[in-house]
Amino acid sequence: MKRILFTLLALIPCFAMAQNTKQDSLRLLFIGNSYTYFHDLPKMVYEIAKSQKKKLSVKSVTKGGEKLSGHLKNQKLRDMLTSQKWDFVVLQEQSSTPAKPTEVVMGESYPAAKSLDSLIHIGSPKAKTIFYMTWGHKYGTTHKIDNYPLAYTYEGMQERIKTSYLEMTYQNNARCAPVGMAWQRVRAERPDYQLYTSDLSHPSTLGTYLAANVIYTTIFVSPYQTTFTAGFASEKAEYIQQAAQKTVFENKMILNIK
Fold first, then answer.
1. pLDDT score, position 24
2. How far apart are CA 14 and CA 43, in angstroms?
């Protein structure tokens, strides 16, 4: 029953809006799939901002398993991008697509990323696009990628994802939120921390909390300590916050954060 419910939810497009929609707020839009809506990543980013007294209005457009190319076909989303004003738009590709061979990613992801970035800047010329770099599946891709063994291990999949997201970042003069890089740090430093759910792909609540801290740091680019812990013990939450910030601050040049 749980699997059936998850499948049904994954097929439903989600147009969610968090609190705080005052005009003096920074306006943030998430475009993605289950890696964005699991444990309500946008809400976590909002809560971190709230704890820092940052005014942030957050909306999201998500659909389970959706690719950037699929989002590009969504007329409601296209209208949101061209008719509404945004300060930041976070783009998240389907989890295994950026881990495919280079020529496939060039055909599937890069053109859609470019088109979405162009739509963003039609409505919001001063907006900053942020590419949400995801992570390798725990033991390599859980989706079949024929004749491409590089993606069959966590390390190989993570490197391909990293390269693909950085390329999309540079092509669009965007920023990259290095969630996958922070994930790799936590896996190495604290292997006892469970970042994945049992499917070896989706984020646990802790994984989403890590992603939220990385994205918050990528937006505001300043050190912080938040009282929002997502229910985790203060020591664990503090470690995740620091791992996220260190990953961003140590890699600002390659992430195109100026």
1. 76
2. 14
Asked whether the beta carbons of 196 and 206 are under 8 A apart, the reply is no
pLDDT above 90 for 17: no
| DSSP code, position 1 | -
Strands (E), 18-160: 26-32, 56-62, 88-91, 128-132
Q: What is the C-alpha end-to-end distance of the chain, expressed in Å?
A: 48
- Give the separation between CA 166 and CA 255, rounded to whole angstroms: 7
Least Cα distance to 37 among 68, 12, 5, 3 occurs for: 12
Give the residues across from 131 on adjacent strands.
91, 176
| Strand extents, DSSP E, the chain | 14-17, 26-32, 56-62, 88-91, 128-132, 175-177
Rounded (10°) angle between helices 205-220 and 41-51: 50
Q: Are 84 and 171 in contact (CB under 8 A)?
A: no
Selection from 57, 25, 26 nearest residue 43 by Cα: 57
Report the side by side order of strands in the sheet with 56-62: 14-17, 56-62, 26-32, 88-91, 128-132, 175-177
d(CA 151, CA 153): 6
pLDDT at 186: 98
Return all residues near 102 (Cβ < 8 A) that are at least 6 apart: none
b (16+ CB within 10 A) / e for 19-58: ebeeeebbbbbbbbbbbbbbbbbbbbbbbbbbebebebbb
List, in order, residues 6 or more apart from 4 with CB less than 8 Å away.
Answer: none
Residue 138 φ then ψ, to 5°: -55, -40
